[in-house]
Amino acid sequence: MGRRVVLAFVPMGPPYAGPEVSNSTLLKPEKLPFELHVINTSFQKSNAEKGRLTFTSVRAWLKNLMRLLSTAARTSPDVFYYNISATTLGVLKDLVVLNAAAPFSARVVVHARGGHYGRFFREANPLVKFLCLWAWGMAHRVIVQSEGLKEQFRGIVPDYKLGVVPNPASDEYFRLRPNLSGRVLLFVGHRSVAKGWTTLLRAAPELVRRFPDVKFLVMGTEIEHETNIKWAPRESVKEVWRDYVVKNGLENRFEIYENVFGPEKLRIFERASLFVLPSYSEGFSMAVLEAMASGLPVITTPVGALPEVLPPGTPFVKPGDVEGLYGRLVWFLEDESRRREYGRRNRERAMEFHEERVRELFARELFSGL
Fold first, then answer.
1. Is the pTM of this model over 0.85?
2. How far apart are CA 342 and CA 24, in angstroms?
3. Where are the alpha helices (DSSP H) in 124-236?
4. Residue 252: how many CA atoms within 13 Å on its side-chain side?
5. How far apart (Å, rounded) are the C-alpha atoms in residues 310 and 205?
6. CATH code for 171-352?
7. Is the N or the C terminus of the chain less surrounded, counting Cβ atoms within 10 Å?
8. Which residues are bridge partners to 143 per DSSP?
9. pLDDT tens profile 343-363
């Protein structure tokens, strides 16, 4: 048997969010035991443009589809690898892509990078449910990011088709030495309601009064309107920023970065003392995993795979709980030894998701049953 061939049609960035970071870490041709061909589907200039149907987006998508057909016909891959969607528009695109690639591929493997596929399916109308069953049913293997996240596909996808591949922790984060003696909070994610950005902003004034030296490092694009997390509160990110930051004169406490990656991103992580992401929805957060690998203590919510990912005893807060978030922030910021202990635990746990381990598991899942 010759060397196996995998064709991946996935976003690799830029711009970067969790799926792009995970794909870029996982899909390194020189590290994989098969021949890999990647079509990078990223084309937006900003994360804020994702999910929008425009002339530019349609043209870019059609161009990528043509590249897919050409590459699939030329390589005849053993496996076609694809990241499926959890929006109505996304499912429609998934069907087109899967039907285009399947005739050229011996096997179709799809990766569910998120934690709300089940909720999306339950709340969809009958037609969208039919389209989901059609798209997801075309896969020989459906990969989720943790054992617990299999539940979102129970009764929708047969159990024998479900596999688990967690997100990979890049080796470079394990070499960082964060600023655990300081009081610098790090938030990495869209500056959106769904990521808990407005929850953090509401806690900020009282936190600054309690700790006059506290600062906030922020990496992410501002997103005013969510396209898929419909259960988060409906409020304006801009208005919350004005009411809780601007009116309290706290703008100089925040350093905000967009489209940061590579060495600059690592330097920002190393300046941090504590990571916070009070999100309403996650699959397996790459930002949380990067913080763990960096040796940072983490404050987040028990959503998606996070209760399985973080070490036992990790203190969680409920989505939208401003008082609970404030209490956990104080609990960490008032005690350096506590920050160091939880940072140590997180780094040890993150080793279980080291990129080399995950890459080996990924390769097994791609060819499982062949």
1. yes
2. 28
3. 126-137, 197-210
4. 3
5. 28
6. 3.40.50.2000
7. N
8. 111, 163
9. 999 999 999 999 999 999 999
